[in-house]
Amino acid sequence: MAAEPTNAAVPAIEAIELRRSYGTVSAVNDISFSVRQGEFFAVLGPNGAGKSTLMHMLTTVTEPSGGTAKVLGFNVATQQGEVRKLLGMVFQDTALDERMTAGENLHIHAVLYGIARQERAEAVNRALAWAELEDVDKRLVRTFSGGMKRRLELARALMHRPRVLFLDEPTIGLDPQGRRHLWDRIASIRDEGVTVLMTTHNLNEANACDRVAIVDNGKLVALDTPAALIEAHTPGVGATLEDAFLALTGRSLRDQGASGRDQLLSFSKRGGELTR
Ligand SMILES: Nc1ncnc2c1ncn2[C@@H]1O[C@H](COP(=O)(O)OP(=O)(O)OP(=O)(O)O)[C@@H](O)[C@H]1O
């Protein structure tokens, strides 16, 4: 079920003065940017910077407090149905039903996204092959490793051939083998012309993207190619994207001032993995 082609000049994603507040907290504060169709785009930021909130607004999960966001020209606040058909998403919390098999999880997605009955079995098989999970399609998902679950989620998100894919820290919690394997799968999406917006704390992954947006305290503080960010913010031989990131966002630990609830939330969002 391929989506209708869109004029190539229309941005894949557009945020205009986008805002979201929680009480007195400005989680996202007047952020504007535009992502071209087919672009690989990373959003980087310290803990609590507003990355997930931004992604949730762009995917119609969270209503903006102000401003506008569009996916391929459709407004996320007023044209949610159109937007949802065009996008795929993999968030940090698994959306798989662990009491079902891999094949059943994919089949349900095919039904929900309107893949025609006669095409479903082939779509499920194609997704299993893409995720390299053909041999375990009848196993319950709760018996899968973290890497297998993440590959299954990604394959599922691609089943209805979305034009724009949103990935919230896609490789977090995986061992180097699992991370590399999943990253190779993500990189293969690039060849198919799908636009990808991902949040990540992994600077190598951000470095491999076409452009990187750096957010801090709900604000967009820089947006450019990795090479241009390094050149502009930490010129010098051997400077890295991590150097540029630290130059732009400082070195203070963001969880330090957070409430106990925030720290627990942040910890559990990472599946119990301590990252700092
Ligand atoms: N549902 C909510 N209710 C209240 N505050 C929230 C809620 N969601 C996010 N926040 C607050 O908004 C701010 C931004 O949070 P967000 O989760 O978007 O950051 P993040 O950049 O994704 O962080 P992390 O890297 O730790 O996942 C934080 O101060 C957070 O505590």
From TrEMBL:
<protein>
    <submittedName>
        <fullName>ATP-binding cassette domain-containing protein</fullName>
    </submittedName>
</protein>
<dbReference type="GO" id="GO:0005524">
    <property type="term" value="F:ATP binding"/>
</dbReference>
<dbReference type="Pfam" id="PF00005">
    <property type="entry name" value="ABC_tran"/>
</dbReference>
<dbReference type="InterPro" id="IPR017871">
    <property type="entry name" value="ABC_transporter-like_CS"/>
</dbReference>
<dbReference type="InterPro" id="IPR027417">
    <property type="entry name" value="P-loop_NTPase"/>
</dbReference>
<dbReference type="InterPro" id="IPR003439">
    <property type="entry name" value="ABC_transporter-like_ATP-bd"/>
</dbReference>
<keyword id="KW-0067">ATP-binding</keyword>
<comment type="similarity">
    <text>Belongs to the ABC transporter superfamily.</text>
</comment>
<feature type="domain" description="ABC transporter">
    <location>
        <begin position="13"/>
        <end position="242"/>
    </location>
</feature>
<keyword id="KW-0547">Nucleotide-binding</keyword>
<dbReference type="InterPro" id="IPR003593">
    <property type="entry name" value="AAA+_ATPase"/>
</dbReference>
